[in-house]
Design a protein that fits this description.
Its EC number is 2.7.4.16. By secondary structure, this protein is an alpha+beta fold. The protein has helices spanning about 5-15, 60-80, 100-115, 165-170, 180-190, 195-200, 215-225, 240-250, 255, 275-280, and strands at about 25, 35, 40-50, 85-95, 120-125, 130-140, 155-160, 205-210, 230, 265-270, 285-295, 300-305, 305-310. The strands form two sheets. It has a seven-stranded mixed sheet, sandwiched between helices. Strands 1-2-3-6-4-5 form a six-stranded mixed sheet. The chain is globular and about 55 Å long. The two termini are about 30 Å apart. It binds adenosine-5'-diphosphate and magnesium ion. The site of magnesium ion has 6 residues, from helix 2 and strand 8.
Length: about 325
C-alpha cells in the first residue's frame, strides 16, 4: 500500500467517523473545532504538537520553547476569531532538569498571562522531548471564521510580514550568514495575532493562520471555499531583512513557502476596508491587502507583472523528505 502523507492520513483514517454529536458545529478540517452549546457562545478547540528535531532544534532556549508551544495554538484560535481562555499541557521530557522546566514554564506562563489564558490540566511523561498543547477559546455571536467562505471579489489580507521564520531557520542552519535578531525571534518566539483575531468575526469571510507557508495555507482557503485567487508578489509584506535575503539569494519563493510565521491570512468583502483598518489600528496590528479572490481554482502569483510558478510548497509531515531541523 502506498504510504500516506499528513493530510491523507487525517482524511483516510480519522475523518469518516460515524458519531456526529449534536453540539459539534465544526469538526475536523479547520484551524479549530467549534462546539456550540448555546446560541450566544461557542467553544473553539485546537491542539498542536512540537517535536524536538522536527519542529525545533533540541538545544532551543526552553523559555522560548514554552512560549512557542502555547503561541502556535493561540494562533489557531486567532484564525478562528476566538478569544483564548484555557490550555492543557502534555509534556514528554527526556530528563527532569528543574532549571530547564522552570524556564519552559516561565515562557509558557508569560504568554498565557498576556492573553488571560488559564492552564487547567495536562500530562507529564518521560520520553523523547515533545510538547503538546490543547487550547480552548470562545467565539461570541457567530460560528467563528472558517477556511470556507471566501467569495469572488473579496480582498485577501495578511497581518504582519512573512518569510521571517524562514529566514531565521536559514540563519540557524548556517545557510545564510547575515545576522537578523527579528528573524530568530520570529522562528523561536512567534507572537500570535490574538488581539486582532478576536476582531476577525466582524469582517472576515474566511481565515487561516500561516503555519505551513502562505501558498499552502491560502490554498486551504481556496480549496475549502471553491474559489481561486490572484496575489502580487510585490504586495507581500516583507521585513527589510527578508527583502535583503531575497535580493542576495534570488530565492523569491521563500516568503511564500516557508512556514512558522503565525500571521493571519483572511478574506473580506471590499466593503469592510474601513472596519479592517479600524481593527488594525485599535490592536496595533499591521494589515496589508495582498490580492483578490477570483472564480475558478488555484493561486495565481504575479511577479513583475507576470504569472510565476512555485517549484516547491509548504512543509508536509510524511511527504517533505527530511525533518526541518
Ligand atoms: P493546523 O495547521 O491549523 O494546526 P492541521 O493541518 O494540523 O491544522 O490539521 C487539519 C485538520 O485536521 C484540523 O481540523 C485538525 O484538527 C485535524 N486533524 C489533524 N490530525 C488529526 C487526527 N489524528 N485525528 C483527527 N483530526 C485530526
Ligand atoms: Mg492553523
Amino acid at each position: 500500500m502506498q504510504r500516506p502523507g499528513e493530510f491523507e492520513i487525517i482524511r483516510r483514517f480519522f475523518s469518516g467517523q460515524r458519531v456526529a454529536d449534536v453540539n459539534t458545529e465544526i469538526g475536523i478540517g479547520d484551524d479549530c473545532a467549534v462546539l456550540n452549546f448555546t446560541a450566544a457562545a461557542r467553544l473553539a478547540l485546537t491542539t498542536d504538537t512540537l517535536v524536538a528535531g522536527i519542529h525545533f532544534f533540541s538545544d532551543t532556549d526552553p523559555t522560548r520553547l514554552g512560549h512557542k508551544a502555547l503561541a502556535v495554538n493561540l494562533s489557531d484560535l486567532a484564525a478562528m476569531g476566538a478569544r483564548p481562555r484555557w490550555a492543557l499541557l502534555a509534556l514528554t521530557l527526556p530528563e527532569n532538569d528543574p532549571e530547564w522546566i522552570a524556564a519552559f514554564a516561565q515562557g509558557f506562563f508569560r504568554l498565557a498571562e498576556r492573553h488571560r489564558v488559564q492552564l487547567i490540566g495536562g500530562d507529564t511523561t518521560r520520553g523523547p522531548l515533545a510538547i503538546t498543547v490543547h487550547a480552548l477559546g470562545t467565539v461570541d455571536g457567530g460560528p467563528g471564521v472558517k477556511r470556507a467562505g471566501a467569495k469572488p471579489g473579496d480582498a485577501i489580507y495578511l497581518t504582519g510580514s512573512i518569510g521571517l521564520a524562514g529566514l531565521g531557520l536559514r540563519i540557524r542552519q548556517g545557510a545564510y550568514l547575515v545576522p537578523d535578531e527579528e528573524a530568530l525571534d520570529r522562528l523561536e518566539a512567534p507572537q500570535p495575532r490574538t488581539d486582532f483575531g478576536i476582531r476577525l468575526g466582524e469582517f472576515a469571510s474566511a481565515g487561516i493562520d500561516v503555519s505551513d507557508g502562505l501558498a499552502a495555507d491560502l490554498g486551504h482557503i481556496l480549496e475549502q471555499s471553491s474559489v481561486g485567487a490572484e496575489v502580487d508578489w510585490e504586495s507581500l509584506p516583507l521585513s527589510a531583512g527578508v527583502g535583503r535575503y531575497v535580493a542576495d539569494s534570488g530565492d523569491w519563493q521563500m516568503p511564500l513557502v516557508a512556514g512558522d510565521d503565525y500571521e493571519l491570512c483572511f478574506t473580506a468583502s471590499p466593503a469592510y476596508a474601513q472596519a479592517i483598518a479600524s481593527a488594525a489600528d485599535a490592536t496595533a496590528t499591521p494589515v496589508r491587502r495582498i490580492g483578490t479572490i477570483r472564480t475558478g481554482s488555484g493561486l495565481i502569483i504575479r511577479r513583475r507583472g507576470r504569472p510565476v510558478e512555485l517549484s516547491r510548497s509548504g512543509y508536509l509531515h510524511f511527504v517533505s523528505g527530511e525533518a526541518r531541523r
